[in-house]
Amino acid sequence: LSREDFDAIPFINADGYHNKTIAYSIWHIFRIEDIVAHTLISKDEQVFFSGHYQERIHSPIIATGNELVKEQIADFSKQLNLKELYSYIFEVKDSTEKIIDRLSYDELKKKILEERKEDLKSLNVVSDDKNASWLIDYWFGKNIRGLIQMPFSRHWIMHIEASLRIKNKIHP
Predict the structure, then answer these.
(1) Domain 3-170 classification at class level
(2) 111: helix, strand or coil
(3) What's the pTM value of the predicted model, to 2 decimals?
(4) Which parts of the chain register pLDDT below 70?
């Protein structure tokens, strides 16, 4: 795919996950995985912060991107350094796999403690916008097994399928 393909938004007015760009979808998938894996499950620093990825990727935001719509998504996508975005996603993938490997069966049944909500909010990685703020309650309603199932698998599938729809529209 060309740089323009990563930034294309052919379904801008559609309902569904395909009304984004491929670059945005990659960002979004891995920001959520990084936040959930590191802040919620492992209780350590996100790869995004430890690797100074905001500067490296040239991202104007540190949040998941749920708060962005239509032209905001297109404008956001064009700012991203894709080479550094790919460095970020591979580092998140590797670190997530290590976190999952360390989990015991009993840990999978545990929920994230409610009192940790404020810690998460203080990082400003989930926007206060109504399109994003629901994520916090959603995540805190899951146990670790549920977090692994949604952000680390189903969430990927939804956005990758949408990205394939975008690619197929651009290159029929």
Answers:
(1) mainly alpha
(2) strand
(3) 0.95
(4) none
